[in-house]
């Protein structure tokens, strides 16, 4: 029998996890064991710290639900989500860059027409986000599906309003034959990530800003192209340089032009001042 010591425990654990039936699981798990052991050695992890970490993970699981994704949030604030996005979406420099999905996407949003209002009945400055969806050669992509979602003017998403059971600030849009799309919404505001859970407990013990700059989320899943998960950020917004989830990219910062009452990009008209953001999404062919 080989006795377990501080010196051989890592090799023994690696050998066990090498027996995983799936080769990729074996690769991932053995690397995880090595890095976890190295980490514990490097910081000389105490038993009290180890149990505190286990309890933090427990709380993270306990607070998570269909409507709350605390583990995604943890991954986001550690920069892990954005690292995984960057490694897996090395797109052509001309293509629209990808960013994090975040914890607030809800599938199955209602289908809205060109210029359909996803902010139905909510107060805020009307915002039209419009432009085209194109391929790398500049050709329009017709019938592209854009899944769009955002926070309200208090910085809260639908899933953070427990009493709301209809779609709120989210919708599915499709491009017309010329690749054009038009989203009618309200201007988003910067907001704090949820700070009332274990992630907030950790972050509040640091000088990390817990805010995100004002943005609208987009998910484009179009046959023949790489799926694109991204956001558009408002030029000049607060927190662009300190986004708590590392999601901002210069290419995704767009000007929100302030417009006087009058004709709007959907062919209608606004009685009140409104804002206009123009952006062309460029999709990379599926490789
Ligand atoms: C979001 O933009 O919805 C988001 C992304 C990551 C963490 C928290 C919120
Ligand atoms: Fe968001």
List keywords for this structure.
binds benzoic acid, binds fe (iii) ion, 6 helices, Protocatechuate 3,4-Dioxygenase, subunit A, alpha+beta, five-stranded mixed beta sheet, 287 residues
In short:
The longest helix has 21 residues, at 23-43. The chain has six helices and 14 strands.
Give an overview of the whole structure.
This protein has two domains: 1-45; 75-283, Aromatic compound dioxygenase (Protocatechuate 3,4-Dioxygenase, subunit A), CATH 2.60.130. Helices cover 24% and strands 21% of the residues. It is built from six helices and 14 strands. The protein has helices at 9-17, 23-43, 47-63, 70-77, 80-88, 198-203, and strands at 126-135, 145-149, 170-174, 180-186, 191-192, 211-212, 215-220, 228-234, 253-254, 257-259, 262-263, 269-270, 274-278, 281-283. Strands 1, 4, 10, 13 and 14 form a five-stranded mixed β-sheet that branches. Strands 3-2-7-8-9 form a five-stranded mixed β-sheet, with no helix packed on it. Strands 5-6 form a two-stranded antiparallel sheet. The chain is elongated and about 80 Å long. The model has no long low-confidence stretch (mean pLDDT 95). The site of fe (iii) ion has 6 residues, from β7.
- Mean pLDDT equals 95
Q: Indicate the overall shape.
A: elongated
| Number of discrete helical segments | 6
User: What is the CATH H-level superfamily of the largest domain?
Assistant: Aromatic compound dioxygenase
Q: Would you count the extended β strands for me?
A: 14
- Give the N-terminus to C-terminus distance in angstroms: 51 Å
Order of helices and strands: HHHHHEEEEEHEEEEEEEEE
Q: Strand portion, in percent?
A: 15-25%
